[in-house]
Fold these 3 entries.
Entry 1:
Amino acid sequence: MADLEHLNVLIIEANQGMRGQLRSMLNGFGIADVSFAPSAGMAINRLRERRHDIILCEYNLGEGQDGQHLLEDLRTKEIIPLDTLFIMITGERNYERVVSAAELAPNDYILKPLTPDSLHMRLSRAIEKREVFRPVYRMIDAGDTQRAIDECARGRTENPRHRVDFMRLEAELHSVLGHTENAEDIYREILATKAVPWARLGLAKVLFSKKEYGAADEILSSLVAENSRYIDAYDWLARTREESGRIEEAREVLASAVALSPHRLGRLRHLGSVQLAAGDNEGAERTLAEVVRKGKYSDFRDPEDHVQLVRAQLGQGRTEEAQSTIRDLERSMDGLPATTICSSLSKALYHSKTGAPELAQAALQAALQAGANLSAVSVGLKQELVKACLDNHLEAEGSQLVMDILRNAADERTIEKTREILQERGCGALSNELEQRVHVEVKGLIAAGADMVRSGDYDGAVREMMSAVQKMPGNPHVLFNAALALLRHIENRGWSERFAAQARGLIARTRRLDPANPRLDAISGFMQQLVKKYNPRQTG
């Protein structure tokens, strides 16, 4: 039986009596290090302050929040590490069906009423399973995804009890690396024995990444038909139809998902953006007003939501409402890095709509003067800025924004969308010119760093490439070559923990931005060789 005494536990539960009962049970197992959070917001703060071994979370958190939403936020925002166990406590008898269909499932769940014996047994079982998977988690945290895949392959052979769990993780890691064929093979192997919902969803996601939208749609449609509460399947079905150009159908799917799960901010945002794309400004205003209302009290509030709401209101000619939204943006989002840019863009859109081009230009100039905060806004908002600049005869300013987008473009879709924006405004030649200028700029930066390495100036190569990272923090080619410069420095000048940490971070960022990069496996292997050569205490 697992030793529980050394563990620390966070209890997320609004009911004070239940918090006391759980603490008494945990104390009875020898677990003295217990802390509490009565709400999702307080839980997020606690988890940012300190790492926990176990989270015991009530499913129904009140005020429109539930434990599943919280789990998704914690995992997707990387607030908790993989080896933190998340265990749901629920009185919902149909929760088994909910969790079997969840893309991000808790490590375990316990139905109420719970007894000390059942809680002890589930905690012990979860800890024992964590220890089996811990080597893989450590490799993932270190950014060594290929070794983690190899460990999964070994784990499913040596631990037949957890074979399917290792296969699931292995498939997900292959997807991270862009190994779509390997991931597809694993999902199909699982499905050959049992039609597991999450494996079908995984297969659909692989097909989506291969742009086989018809095949992905077929799987996702059947998942939704069989389980009307499979929210993750709705989300991916909407994305699939969006990419297929079926905006109206994507809107309908998302509306159904929101009706079933109305409190998830990310899903509401997605619905609002699709409604805007479909020209449904009235529906978009309703949705985005709810996003803004909920977002004010969220740890993940975003001033860009106000900009989207302004767009929906102006699309209906509701200028007074748009003015009110802008005032609310400046008041409720004050202090956030993106607020100044979002406010200025909103004002520019308002002035363009009300026929005041000089004021629109002045507002856009104010947005661009806050350029230091451009990194705080999404690519989508930068593209809206480009549109506004070109529509208000600020071609030079628009061109600079396009250059910024292209310098940090993480995928071909970003480049295509930016190209479309310029072409729609009769600037196709400008698009080609700017793309070529960025290509030459990136190539020159990388070549300069490589020349310094070849000449033995490893310090200079690191300085050159880290300066390039500051200029282009979202460009995967620059990030990759900066990591390589750091590793070449270690190879020739000896171990540097600071350089090693920087290289790990750059490799991880490159992997997130460009998972299909064929050179990622090689640079990860190179790093492992250097760790073994210079820093043996970190291996294992």
Entry 2:
Amino acid sequence: MTNSWRNPLYLWDVENAVEELPTGDYVSPQDIWDKTRGSRVPMLPVGRLRYYYKWPGHGGALWSRLRYWPTRRRMLNIRGEYNAKTMRREKTIVDKRPIWWLLGLVAFALAPLVIPGDMANTLLTAGATFAIYAAINLCWMLIIGTAGIYSLATYAVVGAAAFGSAYLSIQYGVPWYALPFIGAVIGLVAGLFIAIPAIRLDGFYYALLTIGLNELCRVYTLQSKLFGSSTGGLYGADTYIPQNWNQQSQSLLAYYVCFILMMMALCLYRLINGRRIGRILRMAPEKREAFAEATGVDYRRARIQVFVISSIALGFIGGFYSAHYRGVAFSIFSFDTVLLGLAMLVIGGLGRAEGAVVGTAIVVFLDKVLIFLGPIRLLIIGLIMLGAVLFLRGGLFGIKAQFRAWRDKKKSERRSTRAEKGGEMLPEEATETKNKDLLYWRRYDKMQRDYLKALISPELIAEHERSPLGQHSEALERLLLYFRRAPQADKYAITVVEPFKAYRIVALSGHRGVAPRVVEDKIYASQNDAYHGVFLRRVQDLLES
């Protein structure tokens, strides 16, 4: 049984009006409404609001005045704002890193008080080693992160200062307190020598040069009788650790002295990175030398200054290294040591002081504390480094920013699903639209288009082809009324090329005085064929909308 549509014009005795016309199957608008409002994309509860504890009152000005001397970095970044819901002033801590730094350093200082007695010597030795390598990596981070110079000669500078100061202490009896300063002088000379190629070379080529320099130092000391080729290094330098103390007291003293060395390196990092020279290099990072020169900044000079200052600090650490271990071995120049140092930086995250410290703690714990694992611990370090390179853009301390970027992406996807359900405006666009009726009109127009798409069928197109003008079925009449209600801009029409013989489809401009544009070159032989061509184009646009 076919569906039929009763013509309301038949009761008014309209000419050529038939009583009934066949029509397609009935489609309920309610079904289209429910389908349109239903989400086609699974909506998952992703992300959460960032939570900060809020204090009442103002109070942000006091913390804004307190800064780390001699930098311009604030003690705490307190933001005061007005809460429209509670109708009162509130203040929140935006950057909690100073709090975490304070808690971490206090925990490191108090750790010897809670270390088990049977593991005290191992953990104190590992802690002292961690503090020395953390100081080295902080200075190395100034070179790679702040200055943007990819130097792999860090341990070459440290080793040269350690060998030089140890040699002077063994041969000429230089006391331990002078060794760090002698190492600083050696680091200055080595830094100036290594910094000269940085004026011409950059990136990968400079890294190759510096790793070659590191290997050259290793081969030279390994074959030099002057630096202990027969004994595996130089041993017997003066040390600050009293030899008449027991083992635990010596380890405890070394632990806290190395902790002071790490604090000095951290202060140097803040001093360089937080003052003018560090801000200059952050303003004009690598590959923006032209921008820096245009703003009056001597970019190359600033990079060389940071490199030389870091080399002096590395030399100081090298002198302290020989005073701490009473000498130095050839392994400080080995490629394994350089790779472990790179692993510390990559795991923690380049360009961040906390990344250098935490990355060093992870590698030293695996390498020095879990030594019973044997060579497998080096494999674990390599796997962690590989995972950080493959899946993390900024090391461990880049996870937070990376997670927020992923969460914002998922939020955008959820917004798009809401736009799919309720209309054609994103929430951000809807809030900025002055005429809110436009939002509801678009929503209604979308549901109407979805309903009209369900009415299109081959029978309906054949009906229009038989009779483009005149009375039609209910479904075709709905479709034609929607097409006629379209705005003038880009609305299809027909133009006469030759009366009663040739017609062409055009699109109206919608502006007075602007001629219509030709849509296609096809010529229609009759007016009905041209009307049907316009109908097919409108149907195609509707289906693609």
Entry 3:
Amino acid sequence: MRARASRGLLAAIAAVSAMVPAVCAGPAGAAPAPEPSGGFFTGSFTGPFAGGSAGEAALPPGASPVPWAGAEAFRKSIKVPAVRRHLLRLQRIADDHGGIRASGTPGFDASAAYVAGLLRAAGYRVTLQEFEFPFFRDVDPPVLERVAPAARTYERGKDFRTMTYSGSGDVTAPVQGVDLALPPSPAPSSTSGCEASDFAGFTRGNIALIQRGTCSFQVKAELAQAAGAAGVILFNEGQAGEGPDDRRVLLNGTLGAPTVDIPVVGTTFAVGEELAAAGTTATLTTKTESDPHRRTRNVLAESRWGDPERVVMLGAHLDSVTDGPGINDNGSGTAGVLETALGASVLPTRNRLRFAFWGAEELGLLGSQHYVSTLPAAERAKIKLYLNFDMIASPNHIFGIYDGDDSDRVGAPAGPPGSDRIEKLFESYFTALDLPYKGTDFTGRSDYGPFIQAGIPAGGLFTGAEGIKTEEEAAAFGGEAGVAYDKCYHQRCDTIANVNDRALGVNTGAIATAAFVYAYARTLPGGGAAPGTVQPGSGGGGLAHDHGQDPGHSHTGVSR
């Protein structure tokens, strides 16, 4: 980094201290944290900056001597080549296991063993938290073809995808629309297929064509099967928008659980509108595997340093989809968090660091949901914030920061109190590097969801998935307008070649900065002021909890 940018980052972190006292304010005269070994630091821990800095003036009276210069040094110690080595290893694991690393497969087991082995060797207490989940995969590639009025073959991954937990079948039949709104209403409001009465007059043996909206995909598919449908085509609702608000793009969805036996696929709005034409006959073929009692695991690693009553948690999902190796989604977040954890292993922090690598995220946040739901209330209260990193190196990326304060006034409301402070910390990081950023909504599509529902402040970074980059975003971030942030999202081409090294480096630096700042902060977004200097502690810090099944794992709420 240029020297000017380095100085700017130090000043920005100090400025966050002044603007957001809950991040670092503490009693005047508090004892400094001890200086860790390992050569990461450029100055002593006796003041905010080694030798002073222009940013020091931004600290409020009585601010604690948190080592902000150390945060910059720690960030620099986390090297992109080391992060890429983790990605290369995950790619090799996928290559050795049928091209995938999905939960419930040998590729995921090998990925978990790799991550856990490195963390144990670095001195962390590692827990493999097992849980049961309903496994799903395509055994053979699905087929969707229009037979009449004119033949057309639709492309998997571009025009349609198998819905997670679809049944199997091979059917050629007329396509019958169910309570469709074409053209769509200006705002999302479709109730297509949400009530049994929508299927009055449905011809048994036909393929049901159903529009997205209002109720879950699972409800729609179950009602269609009950009405005698031989297959279901669910298509996006049709409203224009940006990112996850664009309801024209390919519908990637889950039925939540294997409750139907017939084939179910999701399509773009354009494909659905085309199939809605009178006289349409289609062929729909799926061959799938579902196992309602498959087991997988979360990898949880806890530092031996810091106050176990004040937990700073960082996480990324470790699993891929069953269609590809998942190197951007989410090898990138995994690698960034993993290398940060390895670097932080020698730090005698004030607060306890806990790192999570989630299983079965791609099937509905099942790993993180299981973890949060099985934590006793007292253990849950110890987690003062959760930082999530899911897809941090998309090839046509933006730099997205989760909108903790709902300042963008788009979609979901603000996160729990303290989420705004997390957002400000990440904003100051990008501002200091003269890099653009934008808010990204808490849509509930990643592992921060269960933490927010539990009232735990959350934040993190995201570089975009299947959404389409706008002209304004291309002007700000570079890349290509009118193209997906990640054209290989949930596809076999999500390989090591699908990773943008610049985005990977910038975001890994942000992960390291946030980890260090919150590891030493005297007060945290989730509340609770630290006592004096905390020495290494003992105890599980909330990891020793029941590993039974989470009864709420279907997570159908994300599929509307």
